Structures are given as C-alpha cells and as structure tokens.
Amino acid sequence: MTMESPIDLRNCISDRCFRCFPCLSNPARRSSLGLKVALVVLHLIYAGVLFLFDKDLIEKTKREPWYTTLYVLLFVATLAQYFFTACSSPGYVLDAMRADNKTDALFRKTLMTSKQPASSKNGSVVITVDGNQSGRNFLESNAASWTKVVMEMYPPGSSVRSWTCTYCNVVQPPRAKHCHDCDKCVLQFDHHCVWLGTCIGQGNHCRFWLYICEETALCLWTSLLYIEYLNANISKAWWIDVIMISLLVALSISLIFLLLLLLFHSYLVLTNQTTYELVRRRRIPYLRGIPERVYPFSKGACRNLYNFCCARTSIYNLERLPTALELEEKAKPYTCLDVLSCRCCC
Ligand SMILES: [Zn+2]
Ligand SMILES: [Zn+2]
Hints:
InterPro entries: Palmitoyltrfase_DHHC (IPR001594), PFA4/ZDH16/20/ERF2-like (IPR039859). Keywords: Acyltransferase, Lipoprotein, Membrane, Palmitate, Transferase, Transmembrane, Transmembrane helix. Its EC number is 2.3.1.225. This is S-acyltransferase. This protein is mainly α. Helix 3 (55-63) packs across helix 4 (65-86) and helix 7 runs antiparallel to helix 8. The protein has twelve helices and seven strands. It has two domains: 24-87 and 204-270, no CATH class; 93-201 and 294-323, no CATH class. The protein has helices spanning 6-20, 27-53, 55-63, 65-86, 93-110, 136-151, 205-233, 238-271, 275-279, 301-309, 324-331, 336-340; strands at 119-121, 124-128, 177-179, 184-186, 191-193, 198-200, 315-318. A hairpin with a 2-residue loop joins strand 1 (119-121) and strand 2. Strands 1-2-7 form a three-stranded antiparallel beta sheet. The chain has a two-stranded antiparallel ribbon with strand order 3-4. It has a two-stranded antiparallel sheet with strand order 5-6. Residues 179, 181-182, 192, 199 line the site of one zinc ion. One zinc ion (ZN) is lined by residues 165, 167-168, 178, 184-185.
C-alpha cells in the first residue's frame, strides 16, 4: 500500500477537476472565474444579511411588496449587466479587419466600379459585421486592403511600420492599443478591467457605463437600507451591530469609488476620450502637442453622447485623426456667441 503525499493528492484532484472543466486549466480564466464568483457571493451576502436581521424590512415587504420587488429587480439587473459586459467583445482590431474584408468583398461584388471598401461618413469609416469568415490565409490575403483603409486615417506620409502592432502583426487604426492581458489589439482601448476580466473598448464601453450606473444605484439603495436598520435597531444586539456597521463602512467606501468612477466615465463619454488617452496623453504620438483643453475626437457633447449610446457591437467605427485645421478650430477660445450657440454641445 502506497501513501500519497498531500501535494500528489492535490495534483490528482486538480487534474480530475480540469478534465471535467477544461476551461479551469487556464490560470487567467481561473482567476477571472474566481472574481465573478466572489462578486456574486458578495452581493448575496449584503442582501442576505439585510433580509436575515431586518424584521422591519420583512414586514414592509408584506405590506408593500412592490418596494422589495423593485430592489430585487435592480439586484438581478445589476448582476445580469455585469455578466453581459464581462462576456461582450470590446471590439478587437482583428475582428474589424475580418469584417472590413468581408464588407470589401461584398461591396466589390455589388458595385464593380467602386473601390471604397466600407461606407465613409464624416471622415470616419463604418464597417458592418456580416458573417464570420476567418482563417490565417484569409487574413494574409486581405491585409493589404485593411492597411489601405487604416493608413488613410493617418496624415499622408505616415509609416505603416510605426502603426503596426508587433504582437498581432496588424495595422492599428487611430485610438487602438494592444492589450497584454487579452493579447489582442482593441479598438478605442479604454482599460483592461480586472473586475470584469475583459477589456473595455469601443464595443462594450456603453455596457460598462450602464453597469457602473446600476451598481451605484444598488449600492446607494443597500446603504440606505442598512442605515435605516441601524437607526431603528442599534444597541439591541451588539454583535449584529458590529456586522452591520462593518458592512456599511465597506459599502460606503465602494459607493464613493463607484460615484467617482461614474462621474469620470461620464466626462470621458461627453468629451469622446478614453481613460488611456487621458492618462497617457503626453506619450501617445498623435495626441502629443495638442493643448490639454482640446478634445481632438469630440464632435460636441450631444453627438458624442448619441454615438456612445447608439453604438452597435456589429458595427466598427474607425475614426480618422483630426487635421491641423480642425484642431485649430477646436482650440479657438470661447466667445459669448459660442456660449449662446452652445458650441460645446454641437
Ligand atoms: Zn496587438
Ligand atoms: Zn484586455
């Protein structure tokens, strides 16, 4: 009879576990899954503790069921939005390239005389996803078409090499960046969110903003319920007070963080910027030298908001770099007439 060491036993258990759930063999996916489970558990603890100790809330639920129903609906919607955002694509450059090639092929088929690969609107290129053609040969044979589309967005004379990602070997449109966690180039890269386990980019920034909104509302409502409980029941049982006060302190810290995050991302949306562009402004070649108060990609607060809210994941919107003349226009100081005509809005 042989005695197995604890390490052998642990390896044996993990091997069996990985055989049953192959996705767990990847450490990155394992930690991402762990975070998701932790988030759900944390939400359940906060709501569970409240319904366990707060007898008044249970009484209120019996009297006014709509109040608790609304809270539960927000609770479920927040968690659903979290998973919806975590599973969404941030808009990878390679996917846009495939979509562009597909659009290009369809366009050539229908309009033999035209050479325009995708619809062009206000200098930006809109690429519609239609089909899932993929494969290395397909990508190689059509890389030239993509390079042409992308290089038209940079000032004439720009070198293809300086805008080619050395990891993906693909030409990056303006505002795209390679994410080392996802190992892919992302369109309108904002940041890689560890909490969601995905990048935030053109494809899911709106969903991310909605998620922060819902999480802030849920956090605020839960804090109010905790305060209400403590107001009515403080000093009835000291150990319940300790639990409730500790949870409320952690909740208040999360609420402040969420409110600041919501304000910050709302500002980014209204000015059409990304976190990466704001933080690394002086190090991004095409933003270097542009005055701080000039937002090069802004089309006015209303238009920025409309584009942000109505962006569809099936459409890749590639924005070209603004010309020197456009930047000069944007840098002009505001006059009384500009304020009256809402220059910042439209
Ligand atoms: Zn890349
Ligand atoms: Zn990423």
